[in-house]
Amino acid sequence: MTPIERTIRFRRYQDAAFQVLGASLTVVALLVLGALVLDLAKTGLGRLSWSFLTSFPSRKAEQAGIASAIVGSFYVMIVTAFTAIPLGVAAGMYLEEYSRRNWFTAIIEINIANLAGVPSIVYGLMALSLFVYTFGLGESILAGGLTLALLILPIVIVATREALRSIPLHIREAAYAMGATRWQVVRHHLLPYSTGGIATGVIIALSRAIGETAPLITIGALTFIAFLPPTPLTPRPEEDGGGLYGPFEWLDSGFTVLPIQMFNWVSRPGEAFLANAAAAGIVLIVATLGLNALAIVVRNRMRRRIRW
Amino acid sequence: MVQPRESAQAATPVERSVPRADAAAGLRIRRAIVDRAMQGVLALAAASSIAVTLGIVYILISESVPFFRAVGLKDFLTDTMWTPQFAVPRYGIVPLLMGTLVTTMVALAVALPVGTIIAIWLSEFAPARLRETVKPVLELLAAVPTVVYGYFALLFVTPLFQRLWPDLPTFNMLGAGLVMGIMIIPYVSSLSEDAMRAVPMLLREGSFAVGGNKIVTATRVVFPAALSGIAAAYVLGISRAVGETMIVAVAAGQQPISIDPSRPLDAMNPGQPGATITAFIVSVSLGDVQHGEIGYQAIFAAGLTLFVATLGFNVAGYVLRKRFRQAY
């Protein structure tokens, strides 16, 4: 074998070795995800039942459930979505379609990049001082929802901008050529065409918010909630004045959310509560991974449907 | 009816034509007003992101000023004890910083090499279809709620390690840091892979032409060419690790590391429990600390430290990403 042949053989061997290394590390990373899901399932699947989903937390692990946590997560997400989506989409629209390249825009861009990297617990600290005490919202669903809305705002803004950027320039030019104002171009063309992209980003953002624990602990969300927020327009009990609950009274209610309930059970001693934690973890992971899967489906359908 | 294009600048002459008051002019005025108003509304929304930052900075500073008056900046930065619950409380941030440092180091020791190798493999070795399937699945690692990771670290990873080292405590920074590293892998691998794939084919072909194999091309040509993008990915990973809360709060224990001045390096041992800055904030929030007392102010001082640390990484990452975009 000549030296050059030996070198070539060695180089081929190098490539093959890296091929194996890269593939196996990827597999290991995915296996960890698999182990996590299996471990949760092994411990928690036995606890997962209809009564677990519909019971309130309890001192007795076998009777405890996640009803208040599921409902709390749902209500908080409503506040988050209704705040973050309009605000984030509007901000993204402005930055992509209106703003000129000047120092003001540059500052906003650096600012958003930084906000996306601020640890979530810092948002919680801000919300504790501002929402809970200064605005007097207390440890309410409204305060929790607003906190998470600020947290996911950068994700929504970035998703909106990317969706808008993928719309070809000639769409805008055609609309302007027909005499449309800038707002009409945005309203009648850019917004509808970017809906799929924005929806993908919003779903990812909400899946992040639904698993967020730390900022809500910081603002003082409770861990033991044995009641549900008042459902709008349902009868109020007589001892509480009677009549109907207002449409927005749930915003003031105390709450807990799924990840906090799980955290509470993880930190308690005793095997029985760990099974509850695992069962809550299954629900949580089904929700987040489900939302992520939904986002992928939306993105793929959009790619197939739109041909510029 | 064909109308001239109205930009925001052209709106004023149109408004002057009110006396003619025909239907078309009225319509045009209305459109111009709506156009202007919506521009204002959207600008306001964009500016709100700045308000959030200003709000964070203002609150962190204003709430921790009384704390620094009481404790003193020098003690805060140099005291090696963090014992707020003692009769004579001491507030040295060093033990909490050590906790953050150790867990971050463990996490990065996992995430940076593994993430980089996966990125190189996906970008330079894996077939395109495999890459498009693997990448989103890998990104699910970052989508798992962190409290679930905390559970996993405490009840799966740590018991696994305890079989190897029986005297490993239940709460330890090793398991927490490792799991945190796994969570960060997709942040590193996805961004690095994007950066490497943005490197023009030309450079690879040049390397192949002079006899380079794939791995030499990847490490000597593609990697350096994508370096600023990869560095941005690393910085993002570091920022995530520093700010991560629930994994360490659940699995690393909430006791600050005790620093023995005669053997300071012992504090770096990941096989012991340790509170990070973030875990401390959580443990205080779980207790009943009253608004306005020093324990309440202490979490804002800790938060301010955290914010300053991550701000540096975030801005560095932004600058690096900008550079990598402009490169080609």
Could you please describe the fold and organization of this structure?
The complex is a heterodimer of chains A (308) and B (328). Chain A has helices at 3-44, 50-54, 67-98, 103-117, 120-134, 141-165, 169-177, 182-210, 214-218, 258-266, 271-305. Chain A is built from eleven helices and no strands. Helix content of chain A is 72%, strand content 0%. Chain A has two domains: 1-44; 50-305, MetI-like (MetI-like fold, Orthogonal Bundle). Chain A is mostly helical. A two-stranded antiparallel sheet of chain B has the order 1-2. Chain B has 13 helices and two strands, in the order H-H-H-E-E-H-H-H-H-H-H-H-H-H-H. In chain B, a hairpin with a 6-residue loop joins strand 1 and strand 2 (90-91). Chain B is flat and about 75 Å long. Classes of the chains: A mainly alpha (308), B mainly alpha (328). Chains A and B meet through helix 1, helix 3, helix 4, helix 5 and helix 6 of A and helix 2, helix 4, helix 5, helix 6 and helix 9 of B.
Mean pLDDT score of chain B, rounded? 86
- And the CATH topology of the largest domain in chain B? MetI-like fold
Element-level helix/strand string of chain A: HHHHHHHHHHH
CATH architecture of the largest domain in chain A: Orthogonal Bundle
What's the number of domains of chain A? Answer: 2
How would you summarize what this structure contains?
The complex is a heterodimer of chains A (308) and B (328). With 308 residues, chain A is an all-alpha fold. Helices cover 72% and strands 0% of the residues of chain A.
Secondary structure elements and pairings:
The complex is a heterodimer of chains A (308) and B (328).
Chain A: H1 3-44, H2 50-54, H3 67-98, H4 103-117, H5 120-134, H6 141-165, H7 169-177, H8 182-210, H9 214-218, H10 258-266, H11 271-305
Chain B: H1 11-16, H2 23-71, H3 73-78, E1 82-83, E2 90-91, H4 94-125, H5 128-139, H6 146-164, H7 173-197, H8 201-209, H9 214-225, H10 227-243, H11 246-251, H12 277-286, H13 294-326
Antiparallel strand pairs in B: 1-2
